[in-house]
Amino acid sequence: MTARNAPTSPRFTRLALGFAVAALLAGQGCASVSRETTGSIDRDGSGQVAAMPATQLDGALRSYGAAYEKNPRDKGSGMAFAAVLQMAGRNDQSLAVMQQVAIANPKDRDVLSAYGKALAAAGNLPKALETIRRAQTPDRPDWRLFSAEGAILDQMGQSDQARTLYRKALDMQPNEPTVLSNLGMSYVLTNDLASAEQHLRQASTAPGVDPRVRQNLALVVGLQGRFDEARQIATDSLPPQQAEANAAYLQKMLAQQNTWSMLKEKEKRG
């Protein structure tokens, strides 16, 4: 199947912009994923899960919620509970949890980073940017914070500044897939889908990469009208449950304003 250019109508461009913002909110580069078990939550609570089954998510909410209730000041318990709350779409509650953890750990860079992410997920971008910048220190710069700051700037419409930060992060951590993914989605925000695909493909080759990178690549390929290829990327070499979840995610994103049907018709006519 040959690649086709994305539709260039203003409506399609607006769709692309909306999809990119959603992807950036879901996959800011500050999060880390366990290399031992992709999709698990790290011990510090900073990792996130893509397409976690509902029953597993409910269990995680109960487990981490109980640990947090026992000791709301504990960094690990609080960050883990906030992370799963974000996965469940409970951003306001996640922010409230991180506020308490930040009060108890006011100078901890991991906590400030997670707090900034929670603020961004809840829509308070200026405060999120302030918090992330406060966590960064010139004498010990952290590539994760550069990437997180870039994701927030992208959401604020400052993509050029965001990409400068992503490249700083890549100078410190070459070929880091979370940064490459954020950089790729940054290009979606300006409707440069070819550049977006290039960076997301590079990110998707990393061992143990976060499944959301594959989701974002499938999304960008789908936005260019290559429907079958997008579905294959979203489902290839995955367990059936994960493949089904990824396909559902892709269809949900592209189905908005009938984009899914539009692409399928384009395939048939091709």
UniProtKB/TrEMBL annotation:
Repeat (TPR) residue spans along the chain: 143-176
Coiled-coil annotated residue ranges, if any: none
SMART domains for the chain: TPR
Signal peptide: 1-31
Transmembrane segments: none
Pfam families named among the record's database cross-references: TPR_16, TPR_19
InterPro entries: TPR-like_helical_dom_sf, TPR_rpt, UCP035836
Keywords: Signal, TPR repeat
Protein's UniProt name: Tetratricopeptide repeat protein
